[in-house]
Amino acid sequence: MNSSDKETRFVISVNTIAPIEITRKLAGNLAQADNPRAIFIGALSGFDNCASPEVANTASKFGLRGAVQSLRLAFKHKNITIFTAE
To answer: C-alpha angle with apex 45: 49 to 81, nearest 5 degrees?
Structure first.
């Protein structure tokens, strides 16, 4: 755990917060597509029992998995498919 507080916040912001905000902003355009979908790139460190000593990255990938589950439910009414590719 050699990351500074600033680096930890940056990694979590890029890997977890940004995908949520981008998806929310693109949802209107996505909903107009014939087969709307959003694909998020995860990492093995986001799975149980596959964590690494990289705390910020691992935490952000766990967070992304949770965000994808919630986004899937939030945009189901717009028929937007949301999933992760690991």
So the answer is: 110
